[in-house]
Amino acid sequence: MKLLQNKVAELFENGTINLMIGFKEALTKQPVPCFIEKASEIEQLIYTKDCKNNLSVYLHKPEVKQAGKIGILANIATLRALVQLTSENQFWDIEKTVLTVNDKEEVIVFSDMEEVEAYVQANFPEFSEEDLKLLDYLESLSREDRWKYWTEQFSACIKCYACRAVCPMCYCPQCTVECNQPQWIKTSAQTTGNLEWHIMRAMHLAGRCINCGECGRICPVGIPVHLLTVKMNQDLFKEFGTKSGFALKGDYALNSFKPDDKEGFIK
Amino acid sequence: MSEFEPKIVAFVCNWCTYAGADLAGTSRTQYASNVRIVRFPCTGRIDFMLLMKAFENGADGVIVSGCHPNDCHYTSGNFHARRRWIVFRSILDLIGFDTDRITFSWVSAAEGKKWANLVDEVTDKIKAKGPFTDLDKLDGVQLKELYDEAITK
Amino acid sequence: MARIGVFICHCGENISATVDVAKVAEEAAKMPGVAYAMDYKYMCSDPGQTKIIEAIKEHKLTGIVVGACSPRMHEATFRKAAEKGGINPFLCEIANLREQVSWVHPRTEATTRKAIDIVRTIVNKVSKDTPLFPIKVPVTKTALVIGGGIAGIQAALDIANAGHQVIMVEKSPSIGGHMSQLSETFPTLDCSQCILTPRMVEVAQHPNITLHTFAEVESVSGFVGNFDVKVRLKARSVDMSKCTGCGTCWQKCPSKKIPDEFNAGLSYRTAIYSPFPQAVPNKPVIDRANCNYFQKGKCGICKKVCPAGAIDYEMEDEIIDIKVGAIVTATGFDIKHTDFFPEYGYGEFKDVIDGLQFERLASASGPTSGEIRRPSDGKIPEKIVFLACSGSRDKAKGIEYCSKICCMYTAKHAMLYKHKHHEGNAYVFYMDIRSAGKNYDEFVRRAIEEDDVHYIRGRVSRIYEKDGKLIVKGVDTLMNAEPVEIEADMVVLATAVVANPDAESVAQKMHISYDKHHFFAEAHPKLRPVETNTAGIMLAGACQTAKDIPDTVSQASAAASKIMGLFSSDEMTREPVVAVVNRCMPPLFTTCTGCLLCLEVCPYHAIEREEIKDRRTGEILKVAAKVNAGLCQGCGTCVAFCRNKSIDLQGFSNQQMLSEVVALLNKPF
Amino acid sequence: MKVGFYPGCSLEGSSKEYSKSLFAVSEKCGITLEEIKDWSCCGASAAHSLNHDLSIALPARTLALAEKQGLSEIVIPCAACYGRLAASQQAILNDKAILEKTEKYIDMAFTGNVQLLTVFEFLQKYIFPVADQYIVDKLNQKTACYYGCLLARPKDLTKLERPENPMEMEKVMEKAGATPIDWAFKTECCGAGFSMSRTDLVAKLSGRILEDAAERGADSIIVACPMCHSNLDLRRPEIKKQLKKDINIPVLFITQALGLSMGISAKELGLDKHFVPTGKAVSCIVKKEA
Prior knowledge:
The structure holds four protein chains of four kinds. Chain B is α/β, with parallel strands linked by helices. Chain B contains five helices and four strands. The longest helix of chain B has 19 residues, at 77-95. Chain B is globular. By secondary structure, chain D is an alpha/beta fold. The radius of gyration of chain D is 19 Å and the shape is globular. The two termini of chain D are 28 Å apart.
């Protein structure tokens, strides 16, 4: 911990950063994000295995961007998000310094995104066993039961859009659900509208989602929304060999194609 | 009760399938009148959201059709569309949506006969499946339950 | 509120026979937004069109729907009529009641209902239509021709003769290309250089042509009518303005053992060299990779002997910027070399040569002054075996296509050999003889019948050397599949025509597509064979696919005429059915996220990065996508791709398409 | 050092000397060869033309046995056997359905983690690093290295760099102090499959090979395939009739030639088992200069 704090203090001292996004302890087991603006606040900075939040989501916020030079303490999911976002041209207006703590508890300060990319590729995470188990279970159901399962889940959705707010990939200044010329998605929290929202979200994140699972964790009514995108990523890798959050020159399944892409349903 | 006549919406590209449907006309090939065509410049323009909106607005079946691979008027619109459909279908599959109600096809400008057969087949298939009510049920049931609950209180 | 007019055509009886047209018009009149509806026997006739024009004026219509035949038939007709009536032509849309209703269904109520549905859908679309105006793009009337082979030469001369400026860029020190290496040409056996050299000189002297040899295109940006091109003029190390081409330098150059590209490696050249005697320009360059001065730092003989003081070792590459309106890509081809064939000795047998090497042997300006002699010992071969389809049409070698020129040039080679050496024996192993072309088959027959060339239908499995002979083992499939063995003195492989090694990078610089063999892709295989998918860039010659000289020249002229068409007016007019990235008030400027993932989706590379800047400070406020209307062809793939609907397609907008769907469905079928 | 060994039928019968010499050389270099217990036919002769499943299952059984026995590498000297075992392994590893089917046939698990070695790979990996200390003699003769069909083909199984003109055997012969000649019939057909049924064809095909070797001055022909050996060695009378001349060049297995350079006796290498006397090859040998 001391190592990390010293490193960050150093960054503040030599003027590399003037805002640090990291984690601090909370009443619950899971640490919470914190924003450190001066050296005196560095003491609260911690990093443990329980630091799950994807802090990259804050990099889209205007108030964070204003700081100019931002340090960000990143877990592997956050690093993937940073790689993916770079491939989506999102960091043209900020200067950032990325830190992580590896398995051996060494603090790494990346000098550029290429280093982050190399680190991500060397430590690329597998899909979580738990998610795969649930997906396997869902796949074992009949179509009608799956429909029942998901529509029941979606009937509970209150359209709070927390899943969107927490997602580093959902950075559109105006989301399609807010589009009313034409109105693509019903605004009220009815199941059909909810269903459309979640299908659309899955389509927009397929191949871009970096599997941090924040959306599922954050959902106040407990819908495992992250499963949709996890499944999509799994399928895309199987079908097209693409991986999200893997390369700075992104290889995104939906803006590329191969003339011999295989499918079994087009007549 | 009269026989169920399904509503089928066809999203087609201008250069191949729309022209193929025109050819079915010029060769006077008869087919089921349950289909309504919406013309797009290219399959690449066909938004998956429109497919959802079609079902939401009461379509019983949807046909999506364009140029065969390598024949796209814009060279690669259909290739992009194909990837999009692969992904879209797999999301629908996961959610348990009845993907049998969406038929994807390649119909070229020369395949008037194929177009007519396609429409007939899809019409028969959807007739056999009956009206699409999966979405109506969702909100319908929910509202009815709320209503019943309110009444009993 | 929209005031839409609906005009239902009977098309004689073509529509009215199965559709109750009066009923359709009657129902249409009740639709929201419809101010007037009528039906008429022939809407497309002059009186019909007049009725539309009058109705527009009389009922102050803002848009019209014509229920008639397919829009592919008469959309243009009715849009013109709308314009005459005083409304924007893009506010006229067609409901297809003939091809997709009356001709394919019987006379039932359902058919009429379908017609009404379609009319309602289109009425809804028109209610969301906005006026669109043709896009005007200015044109820079200068053409760039990349490649100085016969394709580039022909295209450049055609365009220049039409009075336009042409800039030609050629990679090697001289123009002429592969054609200048050829001995005689089929099917007339006229000398290649005799017909080519005057053209080369014409290029060099043409007042409208600027020639840059020893130069390469660095980058291409911009769009049709307005390309910005960077050209790298490689350092020749020879001052062109001083050099007289006297040749003293290359006579005295001590590095004499460099394989001569022009002679396909059959002879040597010096480090300072002009590729061949008729080169244009006939002024040397220094091949720095093989020059003692540049590699070892000492020598400098050429500088000492040059009477004009033209040698300049300090010369550096220069990058020039040019503006052009259109580009002809004529970068040519390459052939597979003998080392591609393990079964024929991995290129290690000196007397197994490729077609281009044979051309040089047969050429009067070649290393043997036109005498066909073996590279190994200089003897005149008594027996030559020619192998057509070496590599071509061979899936196992990864080349499935036919190289097209080999059948003809192999017949020519065999003939040339027989003409020069009557006693000799020429054998040709072939798969099929493909001699489609004017006087082509006659030519092959002449080789077989008059010049006594032995044609053997079959392939060769192996060649090995024995006692100074090449043993060619093959099969004659026409003689009961008998194995054949020929003791040859020389073997000529008609190796496959392939794309240039740098074709891929050229295509990427130009943003044009290419196939898996790296041949450049035409916009449409039948109907647009000389254009590429990038508007304003044309193809000529074998960079597209294997071609012979007549085909190459035809295509070059076609490319030139396409460009002349483009240059015929100062502005180009384009259909306004293009994609547009939305704009809104600051601080948002646009809802586009600037993720720029759509750049890859566009088949025409019409989407580019745009920086929205503060007008005063120049500070970048936002990065967004921007559609170049000059390049966009209106497919709409980006529209369906954009996650938050920041791009829309004029004429097929989200509003229009969704309202069509809703209008269709919210009534019983 | 222990390496697994699959003999196949030939090395137990007509080409016993190939096996014998391989063992002799290996022993000399401190390598123990362990035979796969209860191995079965590789299916080379007929299985693949009669039943596709069988042609995969037969080698698979042997490979599964090797796995059970704990062998991680096996050397397969016979070119035909190697071809079948490698093809079977590749087919199974490339297709899950074939794996499942085959496991059912052989009633054993198949992981495919046994590495298969051609005789060249074996020599390269195990003998070459130590060979110099054991090579005491110089073969001192011109050798024509003959590969025939299966040692070089198909190229994705045999992994040779230049399938149309391989050099693997030449490298071994150079090490043994011989001078390999450049000749034309290295990879031509010996008539293998017609060994019994059409000896006239064998005579014609093998005759050309011998003739070219003879014309280019070879003192011996080196082979690494039992079929090649028997055709070139056994069919001399027929070949003589065909060529209308006598060619007496002996045909040695690569391991025999290598063994000779290591000072192993002709008897131990099974040179007495040949039809064409090998004395001519042996007589060339000289002591290696220190």
